[in-house]
Structures are given as C-alpha cells and as structure tokens.
Amino acid sequence: MDMLLNPLNRRHRLRYDIPVLPGAFPLVGHLPAIVCDLPRLLRHAERTLGSHFWMNFGPAGYMMTCVDPDAFALLRHKDVSSALIEEIAPDLFGGTLVAQDGIAHRQARDAIKAAFLPKGLTHAGIGDLFASVIQARVQAWRDLGEVTILRETGDLMLKLIFSLMGIPAQDLPGWHRKYRQLLQLIVAPPIDLPGLPLRRGRAARDWVDTQLRQFVRDARAHAARTGLINDMVSASDRSNDAPSDDVLVANIRLLLLGGHETTASTMAWMVIELAREPGLWDVLVEEALHMGAVPTRHADLAQFPVAEALFRETLRVHPAVTLLPRRALQDLQLGQRRIPAATDLCIPLLHFSTSELLHEAPDQFRLERWLQRTEPIRSVDMLQFGTGPHVCIGYHLVWLELVQFCIALALTMHKAGLRPRLLSDVEKGRRYYPTAHPSIKIRVSFS
Ligand code: HEM
C-alpha cells in the first residue's frame, strides 16, 4: 500500500479495547495520510480494524474515530463537548463560539445568527451585493480565458465575505496569504521556531486580529455604516454584559475563517465538475437561459432546481469539512461499543457523505439524486454542515451564493460561446484536512 503511513510502525495495539491504526509517524502521527489521502485511509482502517479505531492527529493526540452512522448523532448528544476544538487550535478558535457548549454557546450564537437567516440576508440586501461582485469576477474569467481555479474562487470568496461584513476591500491578496498561514495552526507541530508553521501561524493570527480590532473601532466611530460587523458591535454594545473586544474579534475571525476556505473550495469543485462533465454544463445552461437572470433572494431559489442539485451534490462528493472533533463528557454507547468519559472523538463527515448506507453509487456525481427526490431535505442530506446546536450558521448564505455563482457562470460563458474545460489532473495535490480542497494548481479554461 502506497499511503503516507510509517512502515516501521506496524504493531497492532489497543487503547480502551479499541484498535489503534498502525502507521503513525513520530510527532505528526497519521496527519500526512489524513491531509493527503483521507478517504483511502478511512476505508483502509474500516476494512482492517472495523467501525471504531484510534487515529493519531500528531500534536492534537489520539481521537477515537467511528464510522458507524450512530456517530453522526453524537453531534446532537448533550454529553458531548466542543471544547476539544479550542484545545486542538487554541490560537485559532480559543474564545470563539464554535468551541463553546451550553448556555455560553447559545448566547454567543444568538447574537449573530439572525443576520444569516434568509430574512436577515434579504433584509441586508446581500443577494444584490453578491450578484454584482460575482458577475464582475465571472466576466473577468471570460476575458482571461484560463484561470487557476482555487486561487480565483478564494479571492472571490474573500471579496464576498468582506462585503458581507462591511469591511473595505483593500489589501485582499495580503489577507489571503495570512489565512493560509493561519489555517496551518491546526496541524502545526508544537515547535515554536522562526520559519516554522506555528510561529508563522501565530504571526498571521496577530496580524488578522489587529486589522479586525481596528474594524470594530471604526464600526463604533461610524455607527451609521452598514455591514455585519456594525450590527454585531452595536448589538453587543447595547447588551447588559457586553462581550469584550477580544471576544468580538475572535468571533468575527471565526466567521471569516468559517466562510472563506470552505466556500472557496466548494465553488472550485463546482467548476471542476462542470468542466469534466459536459452533460452537467448543458443542463445548467438550459436552466440559466430559461430563468434569464441571477437570483438575488432566497424566495427565488426554488426556481433553480438544477443549480441547487449542483450545490448539494458538489458538497456531498467533496465535503469541505471532513472531520469534526468532540469530547465525551460521560460514558457513551456508540454503535456496539461503550466509550468512556473524557474520550476524544472524531466524527468523519466525509465518510458519511460518501457512504453506501446513505447513497446509491456514492462515488458517482449524480444530480438526479436531488432532482428526482420528493421528500424534503433532512439533516443527513446536509450533513456537510454538521447538525445539532453547532450546525453551520452560513448554510443559507452558501446556498444563495453558490446558486448565484453557477447561474452567473453559465449565463456569461454561454453568451460568449464558451464552456469550461479541465486542464489539469484532478487527483493530484488535493487536500482533506484541516479543510478539504482541490489542488491549488488546477487550471480551467473557458473556450
Ligand atoms: C461550503 C461552505 C461551508 C461548509 C461546508 C461549512 C461547514 C460547517 C460545519 C461542518 C460546521 C459545524 C462545526 C461543528 O459542529 O463543530 C460549521 C459551523 C460554522 N460555520 Fe460553516 N460551513 C460553510 C460555510 C460557512 C459560512 C459561509 C459561514 C459564515 C460566513 C460559516 C460560519 C460558521 C460558523 C460561525 C460556525 C460555528 C457555529 C457554531 O459553533 O454554533 N460557515 N460550518
């Protein structure tokens, strides 16, 4: 087997009666295989060890990974905590709502969630704002004729999320680089030396926080301005126990992080799938021409079933968030096993998203799964966004912007007599962790 596993570590051993996946390296554990080859690693582990096994996340230690469908329900379990997220990446997620439980979490979430619901997004005119930014970018691609797709969708997403927050869009390339360094904090070895990911990631985090702190101050100074940061600042300043600026900055950083890489990756995969399957492009163009314009409100999305199916199927096959960490607070029953309190758990969303238990021919990209269904969307149909109290805040936003994006792409390219074509090998250089994305080198032409 040519996976990135340590050939010197073949010993089979147990922790709490559950098998440990062999092949860990010193210091980085199974991270090389998790980052570069996660689907194969999970299949290999399930085949050789069964539904429960320990994976070694290097600096974050061992997590008990469970591919039994019961594991997804853990996300709704009251005795399961998100605090582990803060321990894994304190520099990134410390003090943010994604790592909080119970009442503290609910309060922090309540302060921002309304703005991300269809009503809040419509009220803020996000659809119109996004449509014009997306159209301008897609027209630039048409004129360029060829693009490095992930770089482009990353830039576009940063622009969109900045405009959503009401942050002036200067200096975007700088932000982009800082974000990539910031994300490395999740997998950085715990060695604090110049030039190494930990030191660079922390410097990037400080840079980002300094910018955000200034935005918060600006928001206070110009309370009449619009944008989500202004709404968050004025709402929290009005409340009785107003959160400190540090907390505000941390949660804004979380929103930018949560909304950027994930959506950029999904958007890039969408273009890649359209480029490699001509039939897909044709049905999308047909729908776009039939409707004639990019939708701007959630109420209009039902009229774009092909675009919606494309959004759901792209995420199903290429979920941007592949693994979720949790900690058991009490003893738990998980499938056939008893899990002791304090066990660190890994919930492999990627496995469920592409599982035969949930989908027929799970490896095939099929819009029909969504177009032919008559039942409403259930939580397992959108498991790529998690479920339970921490379910993604950005779901409605992503749905809107990805439908807008593919319709704008279809209209613009079709009008110019162009269609997307893939110029690179898709399998090479794709990543699965900390977030999943196609290779940064993949190029797509419009010809
Ligand atoms: C394709 C795009 C996206 C995917 C696949 C995605 C996925 C997820 C997942 C799986 C979670 C659950 C984390 C957990 O349970 O520990 C989550 C939470 C979250 N997402 Fe997203 N997300 C996306 C886009 C966005 C966007 C656009 C935003 C905001 C602008 C956003 C903001 C958040 C926030 C703030 C949380 C934490 C919620 C909480 O802890 O209560 N996400 N997301």
Which terms summarize this structure?
single chain, 447 residues, alpha+beta, Cytochrome p450, 5-stranded mixed β-sheet, 3-stranded antiparallel β-sheet, binds protoporphyrin IX containing FE
How do the helices and strands line up, and which of them pair or pack?
Elements: E1 14-15, E2 18-19, H1 31-49, E3 52-56, E4 62-66, H2 70-73, E5 80-81, H3 83-88, H4 90-93, H5 102-116, H6 118-123, H7 126-144, E6 146-148, H8 149-165, H9 172-183, H10 197-221, H11 228-238, H12 245-276, H13 278-291, H14 305-317, E7 324-328, E8 332-334, E9 337-339, E10 344-347, H15 349-353, H16 368-371, H17 395-415, E11 420-422, E12 443-446
Parallel strand pairs: 4-10
Antiparallel strand pairs: 1-2, 3-4, 5-7, 6-12, 7-10, 8-9, 11-12
The chain binds protoporphyrin IX containing FE (HEM).
Structure, explained:
By secondary structure, this protein is an alpha+beta fold. The protein has a single domain (57-446), classed as Cytochrome p450 (Orthogonal Bundle). Helices cover 51% and strands 9% of the residues. The chain contains 17 helices and 12 strands. It has helices at 31-49, 70-73, 83-88, 90-93, 102-116, 118-123, 126-144, 149-165, 172-183, 197-221, 228-238, 245-276, 278-291, 305-317, 349-353, 368-371, 395-415, and strands at 14-15, 18-19, 52-56, 62-66, 80-81, 146-148, 324-328, 332-334, 337-339, 344-347, 420-422, 443-446. A 5-stranded mixed β-sheet has the order 3-4-10-7-5. It has a 3-stranded antiparallel β-sheet with strand order 6-12-11. A hairpin with a 2-residue loop joins strand 8 and strand 9. Helix 8 crosses helix 9 (172-183) and helix 8 (149-165) runs antiparallel to helix 12. The longest helix is centred in the middle third of the chain and has 32 residues, at 245-276. The chain is globular. The model has no long low-confidence stretch (mean pLDDT 93). The site of protoporphyrin IX containing FE has 23 residues, from helix 12 and helix 17.
